[in-house]
Amino acid sequence: MKKTADYTLLARSGLFDVNHYLLEAPDVVADGADPLEHFCRFGAHEGRRPNLYFDPAWYAAVHLDGNGTGVNPLAHYVAAGERAGLRPIAWFDPAWYARTYALRRGTSPLAHYLAHRRSQRYAPNPLFDLAWYLARHGAEIGPNRDPFAHLLRHGARRDLDPSPSFDAAAYRARHGLSATPASPRVADQEACNPVLHYFRREAIAERAAKQPAPWWRRLAH
Question: What is the C-alpha separation between 47 and 189, in angstroms, rounded?
Protein backbone atom coordinates (compact mmCIF):
# COMPACT_ATOMS: atom_id res chain seq x y z
CA MET A 1 0.00 0.00 0.00
CA LYS A 2 1.29 3.46 -0.88
CA LYS A 3 2.38 5.37 2.20
CA THR A 4 0.56 8.61 2.92
CA ALA A 5 2.19 11.97 3.60
CA ASP A 6 1.26 11.60 7.29
CA TYR A 7 2.89 8.17 7.41
CA THR A 8 6.14 9.51 5.97
CA LEU A 9 6.11 12.55 8.26
CA LEU A 10 5.48 10.52 11.40
CA ALA A 11 7.94 7.77 10.50
CA ARG A 12 10.70 10.41 10.50
CA SER A 13 9.50 12.29 13.56
CA GLY A 14 10.71 10.05 16.37
CA LEU A 15 7.29 10.41 18.00
CA PHE A 16 5.71 7.10 17.10
CA ASP A 17 6.63 4.49 19.71
CA VAL A 18 5.83 1.14 18.13
CA ASN A 19 6.23 -0.81 21.37
CA HIS A 20 3.92 1.51 23.29
CA TYR A 21 1.30 1.43 20.55
CA LEU A 22 1.27 -2.34 20.31
CA LEU A 23 1.14 -2.81 24.08
CA GLU A 24 -2.02 -0.70 24.11
CA ALA A 25 -3.48 -2.26 20.95
CA PRO A 26 -3.70 -6.07 21.12
CA ASP A 27 -6.14 -6.00 18.20
CA VAL A 28 -3.44 -4.52 15.97
CA VAL A 29 -1.02 -7.22 17.11
CA ALA A 30 -3.60 -9.92 16.34
CA ASP A 31 -4.23 -8.50 12.87
CA GLY A 32 -0.53 -8.27 12.08
CA ALA A 33 -1.08 -4.74 10.77
CA ASP A 34 1.64 -2.14 10.29
CA PRO A 35 1.26 -0.18 13.58
CA LEU A 36 2.03 3.24 12.09
CA GLU A 37 -0.29 2.64 9.13
CA HIS A 38 -3.03 1.60 11.55
CA PHE A 39 -2.46 4.77 13.57
CA CYS A 40 -2.63 6.97 10.49
CA ARG A 41 -5.79 5.33 9.14
CA PHE A 42 -7.68 4.60 12.34
CA GLY A 43 -5.82 4.99 15.62
CA ALA A 44 -5.36 8.74 15.67
CA HIS A 45 -9.08 9.36 15.25
CA GLU A 46 -9.92 6.64 17.76
CA GLY A 47 -7.81 8.47 20.34
CA ARG A 48 -5.09 5.81 20.53
CA ARG A 49 -1.83 7.22 21.81
CA PRO A 50 1.28 6.92 19.63
CA ASN A 51 3.52 7.33 22.66
CA LEU A 52 3.13 7.89 26.40
CA TYR A 53 3.23 11.68 26.06
CA PHE A 54 0.85 12.42 23.20
CA ASP A 55 -2.92 12.25 23.59
CA PRO A 56 -4.66 12.68 20.20
CA ALA A 57 -8.12 13.17 21.72
CA TRP A 58 -6.96 15.81 24.20
CA TYR A 59 -4.82 17.59 21.62
CA ALA A 60 -7.70 17.74 19.14
CA ALA A 61 -10.13 19.01 21.75
CA VAL A 62 -7.83 21.71 23.14
CA HIS A 63 -5.84 22.82 20.10
CA LEU A 64 -7.95 21.87 17.08
CA ASP A 65 -11.42 22.89 18.26
CA GLY A 66 -12.57 19.29 18.26
CA ASN A 67 -10.88 18.53 14.92
CA GLY A 68 -13.86 18.84 12.62
CA THR A 69 -11.52 18.79 9.62
CA GLY A 70 -10.23 15.32 10.49
CA VAL A 71 -6.54 16.22 10.48
CA ASN A 72 -4.21 13.72 12.15
CA PRO A 73 -3.44 15.38 15.52
CA LEU A 74 0.10 14.02 15.72
CA ALA A 75 0.87 15.13 12.16
CA HIS A 76 -0.42 18.60 13.07
CA TYR A 77 1.82 18.64 16.13
CA VAL A 78 4.88 17.66 14.09
CA ALA A 79 4.17 20.09 11.25
CA ALA A 80 3.14 23.13 13.26
CA GLY A 81 2.00 22.53 16.84
CA GLU A 82 5.31 21.94 18.55
CA ARG A 83 6.91 25.03 17.00
CA ALA A 84 3.94 27.03 18.24
CA GLY A 85 4.50 25.73 21.78
CA LEU A 86 1.35 23.60 21.89
CA ARG A 87 1.40 20.87 24.48
CA PRO A 88 1.07 17.31 23.14
CA ILE A 89 -0.49 16.29 26.43
CA ALA A 90 -1.27 18.44 29.43
CA TRP A 91 1.82 17.37 31.40
CA PHE A 92 4.49 17.92 28.76
CA ASP A 93 5.52 21.54 28.17
CA PRO A 94 7.65 21.72 24.98
CA ALA A 95 8.54 25.41 25.24
CA TRP A 96 9.72 25.08 28.84
CA TYR A 97 11.59 21.88 28.01
CA ALA A 98 13.47 23.43 25.09
CA ARG A 99 14.52 26.43 27.21
CA THR A 100 15.44 24.46 30.31
CA TYR A 101 17.61 21.92 28.51
CA ALA A 102 19.00 24.37 25.94
CA LEU A 103 17.98 22.29 22.95
CA ARG A 104 19.52 23.22 19.65
CA ARG A 105 17.27 24.97 17.19
CA GLY A 106 15.29 22.43 15.18
CA THR A 107 15.40 19.74 17.89
CA SER A 108 11.99 18.38 18.79
CA PRO A 109 11.49 18.68 22.57
CA LEU A 110 9.11 15.73 22.65
CA ALA A 111 11.33 13.50 20.53
CA HIS A 112 14.29 14.43 22.73
CA TYR A 113 12.38 13.58 25.89
CA LEU A 114 11.10 10.28 24.52
CA ALA A 115 14.65 9.31 23.58
CA HIS A 116 16.11 10.28 26.97
CA ARG A 117 13.32 9.92 29.52
CA ARG A 118 14.80 6.73 30.96
CA SER A 119 18.11 8.45 31.66
CA GLN A 120 16.49 10.13 34.69
CA ARG A 121 18.08 13.46 33.75
CA TYR A 122 15.09 15.20 32.17
CA ALA A 123 11.70 16.32 33.48
CA PRO A 124 8.65 16.84 31.26
CA ASN A 125 7.42 19.97 33.06
CA PRO A 126 8.54 22.52 35.67
CA LEU A 127 6.38 21.13 38.49
CA PHE A 128 8.11 17.75 38.47
CA ASP A 129 11.20 18.04 40.71
CA LEU A 130 13.24 15.19 39.31
CA ALA A 131 15.96 15.03 41.97
CA TRP A 132 13.45 15.34 44.80
CA TYR A 133 11.20 12.64 43.35
CA LEU A 134 14.08 10.24 42.76
CA ALA A 135 15.34 10.76 46.31
CA ARG A 136 11.98 9.49 47.55
CA HIS A 137 11.07 6.85 44.98
CA GLY A 138 14.31 6.06 43.15
CA ALA A 139 14.79 2.67 44.79
CA GLU A 140 11.30 1.61 43.77
CA ILE A 141 11.66 3.02 40.24
CA GLY A 142 15.07 1.46 39.59
CA PRO A 143 17.57 2.37 36.87
CA ASN A 144 16.72 2.97 33.22
CA ARG A 145 13.11 3.83 34.00
CA ASP A 146 11.08 6.98 33.38
CA PRO A 147 10.41 8.62 36.78
CA PHE A 148 7.38 10.57 35.58
CA ALA A 149 5.87 7.37 34.20
CA HIS A 150 6.04 6.09 37.79
CA LEU A 151 3.87 9.02 38.86
CA LEU A 152 1.50 8.37 35.96
CA ARG A 153 1.11 4.75 36.99
CA HIS A 154 0.89 5.10 40.76
CA GLY A 155 -0.10 8.69 41.46
CA ALA A 156 -3.85 8.16 41.39
CA ARG A 157 -3.81 5.41 44.02
CA ARG A 158 -1.07 6.80 46.26
CA ASP A 159 -1.37 10.59 45.98
CA LEU A 160 2.27 10.93 45.01
CA ASP A 161 3.63 14.47 45.13
CA PRO A 162 5.68 15.65 42.12
CA SER A 163 7.61 18.18 44.23
CA PRO A 164 7.63 19.70 47.73
CA SER A 165 5.42 22.53 46.44
CA PHE A 166 2.48 20.30 45.49
CA ASP A 167 0.40 18.34 48.01
CA ALA A 168 -1.50 15.75 45.99
CA ALA A 169 -3.73 14.58 48.86
CA ALA A 170 -4.75 18.15 49.71
CA TYR A 171 -5.43 18.90 46.05
CA ARG A 172 -7.63 15.80 45.78
CA ALA A 173 -9.65 16.86 48.80
CA ARG A 174 -9.96 20.46 47.61
CA HIS A 175 -11.29 19.47 44.18
CA GLY A 176 -13.36 16.48 45.28
CA LEU A 177 -11.53 13.97 43.08
CA SER A 178 -12.50 10.34 43.41
CA ALA A 179 -9.85 8.00 44.75
CA THR A 180 -11.37 5.10 42.82
CA PRO A 181 -11.10 5.12 39.01
CA ALA A 182 -14.33 4.34 37.20
CA SER A 183 -12.59 1.67 35.12
CA PRO A 184 -9.13 0.36 34.23
CA ARG A 185 -9.14 2.64 31.16
CA VAL A 186 -6.20 5.04 31.00
CA ALA A 187 -8.50 8.08 30.82
CA ASP A 188 -10.37 7.03 33.97
CA GLN A 189 -7.12 6.33 35.81
CA GLU A 190 -5.77 9.74 34.83
CA ALA A 191 -8.97 11.51 35.89
CA CYS A 192 -8.32 10.39 39.47
CA ASN A 193 -4.72 11.57 39.55
CA PRO A 194 -4.47 14.94 41.35
CA VAL A 195 -1.29 15.98 39.55
CA LEU A 196 -2.72 15.26 36.11
CA HIS A 197 -5.96 17.04 36.99
CA TYR A 198 -3.88 20.09 37.90
CA PHE A 199 -2.00 19.97 34.61
CA ARG A 200 -5.19 19.71 32.58
CA ARG A 201 -6.59 22.79 34.28
CA GLU A 202 -3.32 24.66 33.79
CA ALA A 203 -3.05 23.75 30.11
CA ILE A 204 -6.61 24.83 29.35
CA ALA A 205 -6.09 28.13 31.19
CA GLU A 206 -2.84 28.66 29.30
CA ARG A 207 -4.58 28.02 26.00
CA ALA A 208 -7.45 30.36 26.86
CA ALA A 209 -5.01 33.14 27.77
CA LYS A 210 -3.46 32.92 24.30
CA GLN A 211 -6.79 33.21 22.49
CA PRO A 212 -7.73 36.65 21.17
CA ALA A 213 -10.56 38.37 22.98
CA PRO A 214 -13.98 38.31 21.24
CA TRP A 215 -14.47 41.18 18.81
CA TRP A 216 -17.06 42.89 20.99
CA ARG A 217 -14.61 43.02 23.91
CA ARG A 218 -11.88 44.43 21.67
CA LEU A 219 -14.27 47.21 20.60
CA ALA A 220 -14.58 48.29 24.22
CA HIS A 221 -10.90 49.20 24.22
Answer: 16
